[in-house]
Design brief:
There is one protein chain. The chain has 23 helices and 6 strands. Helix 5 (about 175-190) runs antiparallel to helix 6, helix 15 (about 375-390) packs antiparallel against helix 16 (about 395-410) and helix 16 (about 395-410) packs antiparallel against helix 17 (about 415-430). It has a 6-stranded antiparallel sheet, covered by helices on one side. It is of the alpha+beta class and about 525 residues long.
Length: about 525
Amino acid sequence: MSDSMADVDRFDAHTPPMTTLVLRHATTPAQSHALRAPIDSRLVKEAGDDVLVAVEGPVHDWHRELRIEPDGALIEEINFRLALGVWTPLMTFAARWAIRRNRLDTAMGRSTKAAWWAPPDRLDQRGASVLAACCTLAVIGGFVGGLLGQTITFVSSDLHWNVRTQSNVLAVIRFGAILTLIGLALADRVGRRPMIRWTLILAAMAVSLGSLAQGVAWVTTSQLLCRGLVAVGVLLLPILVCEEVPAGTRAYSVGLLAMSGGLGIGMVLWVLPAADISLGAWRWIWALAVLTIPAILAVTRHLPESQHFSADVRSAAVLIDRPAVRRSWLVATIGIVVFLNLYVAPVAQLQNEFLRTARGFSATRLVLFVIGTNTWGGIGVVVGGKLADRFSRHRVAAVGLLGLSLGNAVMYSTSGWPMWVASALGSIVGGATVPALGVLGPELFPTHRRGGVGGILNICATVGGAVGLWLAGSLIDQSGYGVAFRWLSIAPLAVLALLFLVPETARRDLNEISRDP
């Protein structure tokens, strides 16, 4: 039994900070034997005797020393440093708690359980570092790419636009998908890392220059470049991550990337109140994008190239046959992204308009509704990612799609507390579709075509979203929001049907999937 525990941070000016846990156990001989055994958990795998070191895990350093005190107590001293980049301080607190709990369970002879936030499979140092770096870049991409959507009303006021001009700008910048296609296809030739680095930097430069805009053409051009370029970097992140992390952690990792991107978009809201300072204050918010450039350079400086891409380049150099893109899978996947975005785009983009006009929400109440109901979607993303990795992409996606369609159909058809509950449940259950479906593009297609296929899917998603907004607008004008979204709920069912035309990819090697007969 543990009678006292202490943990101390150590910092050496010549090395990165280490975390030390000192755990004292008053144990029986059997419990002492269990504590001396090498750890083999989701966090780390050890080897050694009285001094044990990590042979695998998301750590730069890990060693655990055991010694017996004169009073017979067993002392464990665990020194570790996580390989999670800027996320290390946050995750170190979580890791401390998980380690203390697991060692106490071991001392008491109880079975140990992985922390709820732990990935389904243990990450190694390289995979953890890549995932952490890509999550940081996803935050940056979300911030840079989300500036226009959150500030367009302030841009319009300053530059004297009407609603039609706003619509035209939003329509034209969709053509940035062509630039995205070119960039993603180029990534299959020059690599993931350089394209991620330079497209994010150029996107930040474009939106910063947009802060100097004097007219609609300037804003439109800067945002077309920004949206097209930032999409290249953001869409390459799950490809790079899926090519680096274990097979049983790909959906979980894609879910973390999605949540990081959402955090980046949310960070725009942190500075949005500054737009009320003056008519042109939105320009200072856009100019903040230039501050992301040093961060992009710092994060990508040590970001490695994908091992799968490097191996594929070597294979091509020695004329080894590479698998072709399965056309039937491509067609089915195109159908999935078209129908999914046909539904998701109007659900997301018309929600505020519905709440304001059909339910009479004030701006404050609207923000409370969005935060109070949509934030819970993160639960669905994390849980859905773990279940999709452990069991099945198809089953998790099916549950998520049904929850998404039913939740939003009820939300747009009711008012009062049922509307709030339906929105929250739709967000939680529907959140499971993010990792379950988001991982399919990187998984289904061979290494030398993943970027190009991603560009095609991005264009199809853009088209699907545009069609969905047009259909929703027509149906709402004719029959109202409730009827419109009940009809649109057919789209997630079409996604569900198409999903079973592609193979199950959970826990399978990427090369094995792409070479399926």
